[in-house]
Amino acid sequence: MVSPLVALTPKVQSAIAAALGDDFREADPVLRPSQFADVQVNAALALAKKVGLPPREVAAKIVDALDLDGVCDSVEVSGPGFINLTFSSAWIAGLLQDVETDERVGVALQPTQNIPIDYSAPNVAKEMHVGHLRTTVVGDSIARTLEHLGHNVIRQNHIGDWGTPFGMLIEHLLDVGEGSEEAGLLVTDPNAFYQAARVKFDTAEKAEPAGSAGDFNVRARSRVVLLQAGDTETLRLWNELVDLSKVYFNKLYSTLGVTLTDLHLAGESMYNDALPGICEELESRGIAEVSDGALCVFLDGYTGREGKPVPLIIRKSDGGYGYATTDLATIKYRVHDLGAHRVLYVIGAPQSLHLNMVWDTARKAGWLPDDVVPVHVQIGNVLGEDRKILKTRSGAPLRLMALLEEAVDKARTVIDETRPDLDDPLRATIARQVGIGAVKYADLSVAHDSEYVFDLDRMVALTGNTGPYLQYVVARIRSIFRQVGLDPAAQHASISLGEQHERALAMHLLGFGDVVAEVGDTYEPHRLAGYLFELAQAFSAFYENCPVLKAERDELKESRLTLCALVFRVMTTGLDLLGLESPEQM
Length: 586
Known about the structure:
Elements (H helix, E strand, L loop, with lengths): L3 H17 L10 E2 L6 E3 L1 H9 L3 H11 L6 E7 L3 E6 L1 H13 L12 E5 L12 H18 L3 E5 L8 H12 L8 H4 L1 H17 L9 H14 L2 H25 L18 H10 L3 E4 L2 E10 L5 E7 L7 H14 L5 E7 L3 H14 L7 E7 L2 E2 L16 H19 L5 H21 L7 E2 L2 H4 L7 H18 L15 H10 L2 H11 L2 H21 L8 H25 L8
Parallel strand pairs: 5-6, 5-10, 10-11, 12-13
Antiparallel strand pairs: 1-2, 2-4, 3-4, 7-8, 8-9
Enzyme class: ligase
Protein name: Arginine--tRNA ligase
Keywords: Aminoacyl-tRNA synthetase, ATP-binding, Cytoplasm, Ligase, Nucleotide-binding, Protein biosynthesis
């Protein structure tokens, strides 16, 4: 299955070699879209200086050597040396017929690589807020896409499940009682549980006299020591905290419709036993050195104010470990134990310096070989109408579950107004699919490293570049096939492209495989979102101008039904790669 540009490239290269000599056989044909034709060959402008001829003369020589019988209806030189090519509709129909018979609708499988992806990464005993939305949604779409391309994707949900706060949290759990209503807040309202523990800790810190054995803060600090020492009872309580948080995580992931499960949890605690060895190896090899009591790595090229070197602290002066130590253990594990070819980190843009220092240290230590590529998929912020980071009126981070519930409620209002004929359970299902899809698509339709303003009214609209608009196109095609009593998957007929809008739709359908491959290469799901929006527009124009069920001839009706079925397959596949559901009705 090849796109028109892929099929055309060797033909143009052969013509360049025939016209200018074999030395130019590998020359880039410089194929570009054109408003005057299907494609423009711009190679003549780039080659003119090399061969010492005017660009138009070079273009004419290439045209004379082109063999495009059955491929193009029109070939002409224009402007300073552009070659405009207009494809034969029959040739386009033949390429599209190949896509139609392909169960993967033109998406080629790639040689399999092992690709760990680090995304979502919430904290135990803390509620996920809007800041977790983008890393979760973008990471999940990239994971889905790479799997679809044939790769072995290893989801790594690097949750915060270790460290000093857990002494405080365990002691609070003991105070309120395991199985108590307050303990249940870890599932329903984790922030409330965490804040209650924090208030007790801070209050104890300020209390007089301080230091008695019964003080909450003293118990909390003692509990941290027991946790780090592997005390059996403390680990049991820690596991209970983690298990309760898992219930919360899974509820949110289920609501959001992402593919993360308990099997993908790879939290900070997983690397705890490896941290001393990380430090010992770096110090013994002279990569790390003690500075002001802390063990640090100083790398060339990382300087701060006044040109002073910026340290990567891998062991604090009090003997504790930080994110850098854990992240070094993480990259070492993902390369050596998981056999990674690429490692993706879908996390906030401000972490760029930290990650680069970790990777450069790992390279210096030999843990990250040159043939393994680490990638920071940088995530931008979600903004409110004031163009500041989206928060509640009180200034607290906006709870992600509350945001999703509001989106579903907003979608339900729209569905109730537009489809009062549907029964209540069906409207509830559609509202969930549309509301969650609207939030995810709004996020995925912009570049992941950019900011965007969260606007629910715009997101749930059935017009414009929105998730509901794409879902509506799928629902419309389902409706067409319900009218004729057919399954779109069973529709296979010969495709003819006699009308302009049929041809435009076919050209767009042929680009699906290239776009999915591009997303896998660039980790940019917004490219797929943009493609699907343009496909939806092309289908709408086709549907409005080319009667399907009322086509004047049976073979034309069958051809157009096949086009509809192919749009359905591409749209549902593409929406699934973005993580959006395709409602039966809207």
